[in-house]
UniProtKB/TrEMBL annotation:
Organism ancestry: Eukaryota, Fungi, Dikarya, Basidiomycota, Agaricomycotina
The AB hydrolase-1 domain, residue ranges: 36-240
CC terms in the record's Gene Ontology section: membrane
Species: Amanita thiersii Skay4041
Name of the featured protein: AB hydrolase-1 domain-containing protein
Origin: domain of life: Eukaryota
Length: 264
């Protein structure tokens, strides 16, 4: 819920009125109050906003679109966590597993090099595209010093406790599952789903097919072969190609010489 609020606040109060190829400041200034009021009513004139969200990001992007559909033109949902409410015991069992996994996750290494080498030996991380794994180590970890010994260490940027807090909150994913059928039909939906044999589903068998047709109007979907839930990590090129193809078909007015080649 907090993430959906942050998305709405960003587009309503901070996104520049005009697109620019220049480097933007780290902290964007607020737009004038009168413009923010107009955005809440009419969206961003002259701007076409496409939200791309994976997992919980897909869930909260959808909630943001439900709250103010004027802000977004399309939603690309990469196996979003939209979950049909199950029996309380079933939901708790799934949530407990994710929470315990986050709380027990290692957070400190001697160096980024050590972390990368260990990740490569992990069944979980070894399924990732090698370049994505390198980027994860580069951007998801940071070098610091041990507060007690003063020796150099490498630490995970997202502490396990903060990740566990996200897993514990299951009401939003249930709410969005029920509400997505009421999403404004002017917002195009593109579902990108796992295609790996035996890939898990959010819910009982057949839940994936049910989810992608919750709002059938102005919607399409695709399965990415050999990818599980972590599509962006396991099949980045295939995902990028699908996003690029969707954008070129949906928005043909964008000059092809300005459409950057898909790459992650």
């Amino acid at each position: 819920m907090d993430n959906a609020r942050d998305i709405l606040n960003f587009f309503t109060f901070f996104v520049p009125s005009k697109a620019s190829s220049s480097v933007l400041p780290l902290h964007l200034p607020r737009v004038p109050a009168a413009e923010s009021e107009q955005r809440q009513l009419h969206g961003l004139p002259g701007r076409t906003i496409v939200a791309i969200g994976h997992s919980y990001g897909g869930c909260t992007s959808t909630l943001a679109a439900l709250t103010n559909p004027k802000l977004l033109s399309s939603l690309i949902l990469v196996d979003p966590v939209l979950v049909k409410p199950l029996r309380p015991t079933d939901s708790r069992r799934h949530t407990d597993g994710l929470t315990l996994g986050a709380l027990s996750r290692r957070e400190v290494w001697n160096s980024k090099e050590e972390a990368l080498n260990l990740f490569k030996k992990s069944p979980f991380f070894s399924a990732w595209h090698p370049e994505v794994l390198k980027l994860y180590v580069e951007c998801g970890l940071y070098d610091t010093t041990d507060s007690q010994t003063g020796r150099p260490i490498t630490r995970l940027k997202m502490p396990g406790l903060q990740e566990a807090v996200v897993f514990v909150e299951i009401h939003t994913e249930n709410e969005v599952y029920h509400r997505v059928r009421d999403l404004d039909v002017n917002i195009t939906l593109r579902w990108v789903m796992p295609g790996k044999a035996g890939a898990g589903e959010f819910g009982p068998p057949g839940s994936t097919q049910q989810r992608v047709w919750l709002r059938p109007t102005n919607a399409s979907n695709i399965r990415i072969p050999n990818a599980g839930h972590l599509i962006a990590q396991e099949a980045p090129q295939e995902l990028a190609n699908d996003i690029s193809g969707f954008l070129q078909v949906k928005y043909p007015f964008v000059r092809k010489d300005r459409m950057e080649k898909s790459r992650l």
